Amino acid sequence: MHTRTLIRGFILGIALLSPPAFSQPPGDAKVAVRVVRYDGLTDAIKQQRGKVVVVDFWADYCVPCKREFPKLVALHNQLAKDGLVAVSVSLDDLREDGAKDKVLQFLEKQKATFTNLILDEKPEFWQGKLKIDGPPLVMVFNREGILEQKFVDKDVDYAVIGKLVTELLRK
Predict the structure, then answer these.
(1) 84: pLDDT strictly greater than 80
(2) Which stretch of DSSP H or E encloses residue 159?
(3) Domain boundaries, the chain
(4) What CA–CA distance (Å, rounded) separates 171 from 118?
(5) Which residues pair with 140 in a beta bridge?
(6) Residue 133: burial class (beta carbons within 10 Å; 0-12, 13-18, 19+)
(7) Which CATH code is given to the segment(s) 2-170?
């Protein structure tokens, strides 16, 4: 029974910590990355009610992801002041040696000062939840926290994403 209480408290603590994971760091913030579970991502997005949220799911092994990532950084730099919340979610496997370090090095090189997360779930789990085989995936949520559009694989085009985000910020 004592173990059950501890686990329940841990889960509650994680739930309470989830929304700040999506808060925008100050402009002079250092690049950081946090490990998270899938549970709570949807709730955390809904906590950003009133803001437009772009969630970029990527991986260090994904060449197209890394090629497009600087465009997420540019979008954040341009529109965060207008209500955009940018979030990157690495799908790299934390069981691989040095995975977190590789992710952090890439994010630092990109100067990704927004919220950066590493999803601590097995691929078959997130593949089922996100309905993808692998990255890239970008999801854009409107000010009500509702998914506006999902961009997968070759459809990930930050020119199109930027136009959608600009339209949503005007609403």
Answers:
(1) yes
(2) helix 158-170
(3) 2-170
(4) 31
(5) 54, 149
(6) exposed
(7) 3.40.30.10
